[in-house]
Amino acid sequence: MNASGKKTVGLFDIRFIIGGLIGLYGVILTLLGIFNASDKELAKGDGLNINLWAGLGMLVAGVAFMVWARLRPVIVPDDVEPNDGP
Amino acid sequence: MIHTADSTFRLDANAVDYLIVATYFVVVVGIGLMARRQVSTSLDFFLSGRSLPAWVTGLAFISANLGAVEIMGMSANGAEFGMATVHYFWVGAVPAMLFLGIVMMPFYYGSGVRSVPEFMRRRFGTGAHLVNALSFAVAQLLIAGINLYLLATIVNRLLGWPLWVSLVAAAAIVLSYTALGGLSAAIYNEVLQFFVIVAALLPLTIVALHKVGGWEGIKDKVQPGQEQLSSWPGTDLTGIDSPVLSVIGIVFGLGFVLSFGYWTTNFVEVQRAMASDSISAAKRAPIIGAFPKMFIPFIVIIPGIIAAIVVPELVKLKAGEAAGDVKYNDAILLLMRDLLPNGMLGIAIAGLLASFMAGMAANISAFNTVFSYDLWQQYVKKDEDDSYYTRIGRLATVAATIIAIGTAGIASNYSNLMNYLQTLFGFFNAPLFATFILGMFWKRMTATAGWTGLVSGTAAAVLVAFLSEDSFGSASWGVLGLKGQGASFVAAGAAFVVDILVSIIVTMFTRPRDEADLEGLVYSLTPKESLVDPDEVHLPWYQSPPKLAGIGLVLVIVLNVIFW
């Protein structure tokens, strides 16, 4: 990603943070949907295993954010002085 | 059947749900800490150094508005009035957002002002500026308190903590990231919050639709009948009996005056677009935000409508029977309680908390900018160095949060009072829009006309509210047969018309400002090049503001036709 020698913002990119959190939620929900889908739990959602489906959906969304951030990294423009904070 | 017919129902969360919510809070505070490393000037703190891409500011734009009032209030309206609630989105928001992007944003961004009140000061001088800055700052403190109160209510329902402990804990989290990272932290969190809110509400909508039997199921079961599923003429929503007048009220009152007033002059929203990295990105921000805004009704209003069908307490409430303390405002919470299994319940709770924090952080970050630049720097201490104002901004953030705890306490005791105050502050927006639009396109308009127009327009709205049946509750006199939303529409319309008339008349008798002072602030005195980026004509269609706005306009018309 750094082939051109330009600085990227790396993990600080908000897309990695969004992808990470939504993806983690996806993992938790998918596992619950597979291993914790008792009849009582399912009855609440009227037979629909919402944990499983929402979990898979979030996994896909999380991965999509990561891929987007990898493929189109934010480049820090050269004319901006890097800030080390106060 | 067992009814838990009181307002203290609990959400049945378990360890996994808590883990999900706790993870969310860790990430939120983490963003605040990381954003702090980027803050080195006051412009960084207050406007994110004007460096954010359009999709980020666009989503933050919409997320700042996706607070408690939006989610709880609009799902409650959905439960009570049905599909007519979409007018708040498709008529009352999207056209104004597109207008802000295309027409007004170039002036805000191009003139280099740091806040909406600052634009007011440069165009009309300090009279109108002081009115605008003060009313805005006070309104933000009040609304932050309402958001905080609702946030604490969820924590209270969830954990069973006393309300005041929940209030302080919730305030501390919002404070930690807004004070550390300034607007960048608030905006990055708003973008994250947007996705968490969608992750919470979309599955809830899917389960609810599954439960009720899809759109056909809603059609069969919605009470009192299928007229709840068509958006026009919306007589229940407006409280205006005549269908023709109701449509006029929605189109002009809500669609034109109220919504243009809110979206184009409200610094909470405009601040997000001002943080963009170029003029064309600043124009795109509200336009990009308009697209998710069009589809939010499907995950907010539809669950509300279904809640009124499947939640026993709400069915009773809608049928006019005794339903205990349950209110329409509880629609989403009750639906979560009845339909979501542990796991998804945790996501939904995180989503609601995210929404209320987004709302409150937006109020606080807009407040601290206006307080520091427009009140403190302008009227108290003028020529300090830049780091001084960043410090003032942090202090203002702390003070605003503490005051919000106080206003939240008032909100918990006097909920009607808060409603009336919100109505009152809503009245500042309509004349603001009139003054801005006149001032941007009519160079002769004078400074005196600026503040007299504002004051008389607001006074007209307040007068109509007193003359109506219930705008100020029992304090209203009931001379005019107007009530509910219809009364607000008429009040806003009166404010707009009176503001325009007074501004024109006063301008005729006062001296216009020197034209050299108005460059960049008035259309005819601004070189056209300074309103667009040099490369704007070469942008692909998906980055060109006018083309995107055109697509948005067509889409919103199509949606209106489908759900006629």
Q: What is the topology?
A:
The complex is a heterodimer of chains A (86) and B (564).
Chain A: H1 14-35, H2 39-44, H3 50-71
Chain B: H1 15-36, H2 42-47, H3 54-63, H4 68-81, H5 87-90, H6 94-110, H7 116-124, H8 126-159, H9 163-212, H10 214-221, H11 235-238, H12 243-265, H13 267-274, H14 279-310, H15 312-318, H16 331-339, H17 344-380, H18 386-413, H19 415-441, H20 447-467, H21 484-509, H22 545-562
Textual characterization of the structure:
- Chain A: The chain crosses the membrane at residues 12-35, 50-69.
- Chain A: Keywords: Membrane, Transmembrane, Transmembrane helix.
- The complex is a heterodimer of chains A (86) and B (564).
- Residues 1-5 and 78-86 of chain A have low confidence and may be disordered.
- Chain A has helices at 14-35, 39-44, 50-71.
- Chain A is mostly helical.
- Chain A has one domain.
- Chain B is mainly α.
- Chain B contains 22 helices and no strands.
- Residues 1-7 of chain B have low confidence and may be disordered.
- The chains are: A mainly alpha (86), B mainly alpha (564).
